[in-house]
Queue: 2 jobs
Job 1
Amino acid sequence: MDEFALIQTLFQPLQEIGSEENASTGHGFLKKIGDDAAVWKGQGNLAFSIDTLVEGVHFTSDIPPYDLGYRCLAVNLSDLAAMSATPLFYTLAITLPEIHEPWLRAFVDGMRVLAERFHIPLVGGDTTKGPLTITIQAHGLCPHPVYRDGAQVGDDVYVSGSLGDAAAGLHLWLDRDSRSAASTHAHSKDEDFLIQRFHKPTPRIVLGQALSGIASAMLDVSDGLLADLRHIAEASGVSVVVDAQSLPISDALSRCFEMPQANEWALTGGDDYELAFTAPPDMEQKLQAVAKQSGIAITKIGRIETVNDTQKVSVENANVDLTRLGYNHFS
Amino acid sequence: MDEFALIQTLFQPLQEIGSEENASTGHGFLKKIGDDAAVWKGQGNLAFSIDTLVEGVHFTSDIPPYDLGYRCLAVNLSDLAAMSATPLFYTLAITLPEIHEPWLRAFVDGMRVLAERFHIPLVGGDTTKGPLTITIQAHGLCPHPVYRDGAQVGDDVYVSGSLGDAAAGLHLWLDRDSRSAASTHAHSKDEDFLIQRFHKPTPRIVLGQALSGIASAMLDVSDGLLADLRHIAEASGVSVVVDAQSLPISDALSRCFEMPQANEWALTGGDDYELAFTAPPDMEQKLQAVAKQSGIAITKIGRIETVNDTQKVSVENANVDLTRLGYNHFS
């Protein structure tokens, strides 16, 4: 199957997703796939984020293609969630070592399930030959964006869902051969949950939208909580103090791993794609209502203090080695 | 140097380019680099195109980094030119095997010269580790886009500039070791011109804009003239007849290579990034004026006929082997 036939049969149907929903918002496409460029006719605050996932760096070569397709779109939508945006559409540039149709069908299926959930069409792309690399640019409307630079001294720090699951899931996934050889499977359901948290993160779109007007600063937890909070500290010119004992740890994670390890992953492990944000103390009641309505836990994990040049992010009640504090990476 | 310092020192200055010009158009950025997403506030027809260049597929590992930076942005802007769009901004996702600062500085310099020419800021991106791969999404406004599907029976077919130079340049570049070992350098200036045509194509932005309202269908010549004209034929439901004797061949190309070879490259070689378009016969005078004003040659190379299912693109007066007709590729 050549490039054009491939695009026709596999990618073209993705451009029909959500068309009607978009029309009803007054925004629409004059052109999607199939010309030199897509043409979007609209107005407002258009947020967009581009992210690349590289085989061997961001995922292992044996990730199920369905999960990979899901994950590539999920991590991009997570960036939109962190802006408090409503997803509108996305583009896909995929570099493949070869065209293996069953693999590609499963990859497309994984993207489709998420695209259908958020009613977003694929509107353009590029297919190239080379080492497996996937770049997606996701676009959304955000009438009232929430940035990283709005944290104020006295604000509380919150995080959605639970932390550390994805790092535990990655550990389990990489270690699965030795586990399957072992005789005990007492935790197999919990382990599957953790692996899914790594492979198929949930972009917190609805929560992100609900936090507009409440959160003073926001981002998604992709590099690891401490590394990500550092961005808020630097952009806002404040310091962040995290209470290590308050971090939300899932039941699955606490059943599968001892506390110091779970807490370390919660502090420094990445890939959870939860929202971390700050809000003034008087927003606490509103936040409880948002948590109740969305069904997603919101946990207070720290506070914003005046800027402290030597330690932009510090941790209280830590029971783990924190030499990794301030960790950042080239990946 | 870590990822964040790298972005700070090298990529951040690119986001300042063209800021004032964009403000004067009533469009502007609430956020560029440095948050979860960029936020553009504007309205109108936003055209955008995403393209990936992979080392070993779209460029050789020894391409000068300055040329590579230039080329990556140029091929994306060429897609906007083919829509008759005015470039506004771009995003960059770059995957690097390592951070080699001098290389990266030269790469950024190459992007900058083109970004400054068209007054477009870099507004977002992603830096990842892996095999050298560069993905750019370029965005522009096009009040009156020109698509591929507007060609009418009776229209003439035109192309800008000259064809085949880039294919010749690639040939010369790959063969340069054996050439430099030879004693004769009679054509060295011509050869440099051809290599530059491959490494540093000129996006025909101003010409593309001038052709709005004149051209009935348009695209840029990236895969090779015959392969690209096939897209117009298929999208418009017509046939294209090309007169092989009318193809514009540059003086440099005709001095360096014999006619059959030059003509073959003009027909099937890609990477020239000239504009190929159709227009009704009564537009000929307007086209002469556009050519005069832009200083870019516009050559009539064929005509549009009723649809011919067996041969969507056919060639008259061919003096080369045309078994490659209908050629398409996965790259």
Note: Chain A has two domains: 3-141, 156-316.
Job 2
Amino acid sequence: MRVTELESYLASRRQLVQEALEKSLPPAGSYPPAIHQAMRYSLFAGGKRLRPILVLAAGETAGSPPEPLLPAACAVELIHTYSLIHDDLPAMDNDDYRRGRLTCHKVFGEAIALLAGDALLTQAFAVLSQVPAGIPPAKVLQAIGELATAAGSQGMIGGQVVDMEAEGQPATLEIVNYIHTHKTGSLIRACLRLGGILAGAGEEQLDILTRYGENLGLAFQITDDILDIEGDFTRMGKKGGMDVARGKATYPACLGLKKAREIARELCAEAQSLARSLGPAAEPLFLLAGYVLNRQG
Amino acid sequence: MRVTELESYLASRRQLVQEALEKSLPPAGSYPPAIHQAMRYSLFAGGKRLRPILVLAAGETAGSPPEPLLPAACAVELIHTYSLIHDDLPAMDNDDYRRGRLTCHKVFGEAIALLAGDALLTQAFAVLSQVPAGIPPAKVLQAIGELATAAGSQGMIGGQVVDMEAEGQPATLEIVNYIHTHKTGSLIRACLRLGGILAGAGEEQLDILTRYGENLGLAFQITDDILDIEGDFTRMGKKGGMDVARGKATYPACLGLKKAREIARELCAEAQSLARSLGPAAEPLFLLAGYVLNRQG
């Protein structure tokens, strides 16, 4: 497959993901209604579905059709969504807006938001445990183990902890790197690995996908840091300048905007070069690296 | 195996579980330290390990040695522990004490307690994804699916939601039954099913284990309701009378203490009769039903 039109690729994969996500939760109105409304409110809040699309693009690179990869793609988005709900809670970042809408706890209250997050995290593993036709159960178990590790106390959650602890402290590059490679990078890396593992990628191919994911994940977070300074509410859907206001440890805070931009460009170039080495089936991954660098929100 | 001495059975299985739980988390002091301290603080807070022991006892009934069942036993305890941490948070029950010690958020703060709960829930699936020798990967996947469903928005979390919504409302037996069979019953039922599934129980055996778990789980929660009224801090490790003070939906609130006690007795008798029908290997399950009925804390 050769993809010249990234937008049409994104649109078609987004639709597959959207339909699969729709089926990945109990139907709207399921008892008890409050929790299911809250889960759906946050899951269908207009996210770009970048992570699930990365799962599909990685698996397609390794020769799989997208359909058997959809449970893993959904699982990653469910985990991403739960992490946003919990991050926004008053005990954490205390954010009122996310993607231009009120945050989950502002609409449903703190208790339901907390439980909705818990339920989305739990549902990720229920969804991932369904074995798609043609994928060996042992591969699915490997994917579950990798996703849990990536999302856990030495992965995404570990990054969140250090991010909180670093607030208001002088930011060293070492700390910022830990935060970015864990809080955001860990799950993005897992997207690439899950796609590869479930598609039966060989060791070398999987290693390249992993390194692509590491470069892309860090680039993604650095551009996020930059957008927080330069972006506006309309495009970002949340207040800008919050990182500086909170004394968050970011790349621009450590190295300045210019250097941060330069590093993001280098990381994306490296990701693109890794994608090129995977051949024409990795064209979506190649194009996605440019998309991440140039995104506006 | 015939067990006449429940205490020695519980002690030996508790030790196996304890050792396995010790290995189920990153080592103490792992980076970032705050989250790992909090996870360990709550996981090793003197719990009775009833749920993991039920996983082992169910699996042993179906002919398995305890060792291959330990990942599932740990996973269930990790989930139980996360649910306690989140239940105790200010946004939920706002409890200061649990098992006679300060609750997780009182020691580590709300943000770390929230994340420690998230991390324990996540780790449950990391642990369960390790396939023990001799157990087919497909069975492990089935166990993961059942555990996630039991702990999710239509299981344990669903029960928690309805429990909160029912506070201060007139309690109907229908609502109380939903709360009890979901908030507590769902995970206890899953213990029995996971043990059975991983041990390769046949359909009929699994069905009996399931019904045993349903009876035991409801009996357990009713005795909990009764202990909240009659127990004291020394034995319970938390303040008694809180259910009444909060207007919680309980069996005694619905039916009175006498009737509640009678129903708990009947449920345990039914559980014992189901255990009897599983033969001598189910002696621990038989004795555990008596233990649950007569426990003092």
Note: DSSP finds 15 helices and two strands in chain B.
